[in-house]
Give the backbone structure.
Amino acid sequence: MLCSSFGKTLAPGFRIGWTARAPVRTGAPSEVCQHDRHSRVAAESARDFLRDGGYDHHLRSIRRAYQNLMHLFSQAIVRHFPEGTRCSRRREA
């Protein structure tokens, strides 16, 4: 079983996570779990967001935004750090 949360990618304040049964498949998690009774609405909202494809769209958007930020930071490092400073960029497979 694989377990994780949406804290870094969706909303840290939701405090909800997910589980997937083996074998892990791509796509939406099997279950959206609530941390406590106060997070029921957040868990239901996340479940609907996943089911309707909003999360996939959200991930594509934030990946583009982070890629642009990385490019801007790399340019700033080259411009403002001492000569000879290099930026290494990790590329996804």
